[in-house]
Design goal:
disordered C terminus; four-stranded antiparallel β-sheet; two-stranded antiparallel sheet; globular; alpha+beta
Length: 130
């Protein structure tokens, strides 16, 4: 059985860390799984609905082995999404102008533009001959 997960991070404070979808053999999808954090660490919560005064899982794995495999696949994808999110934040931070000595440093893109170069056109040192 092949399991694939996709995770969307939830960045607000609290125990909820993300929402996931799980594809089983590219034939069946379970949506609205959640990644949560407790005192014992991260875990995957199955989709549920309120029945009376309590929540009941709508679907769930029958065997312990399948539950463990679902947790493994979803939490691995969660960790990967977390890494991607942090990398994007780092890239955004690097892309901002840095003030040094009271003047802004130009980014390499700004320097090329002020030198009359275009980013998308490769520069050729050879001069054209007629």
């Amino acid at each position: 059985m092949e399991l694939k997960a996709s995770v969307n991070l939830y960045t607000k404070p609290g125990s909820l860390k993300g929402f996931a979808s799980l594809s089983i053999d590219d034939a069946f999808v379970i949506r609205n799984l959640s990644v949560r954090e407790s005192e014992n660490g991260l875990f995957v919560s199955m989709p549920s609905q309120k029945v009376g005064g309590e929540y009941k899982d709508i679907c769930y794995p029958i065997t312990k082995e399948l539950r463990e495999e679902i947790n493994k696949v979803v939490l691995e994808e969660y960790q990967q999404e977390l890494i991607n999110f942090r990398d994007q934040l780092n890239e955004q931070t690097k892309g901002t102008d840095v003030k040094q000595g009271g003047s802004k440093q130009k980014s390499s893109k700004s320097q090329k533009a002020s030198a009359g170069q275009k980013d998308d056109v490769p520069q050729n040192d050879e001069t054209e001959q007629d």
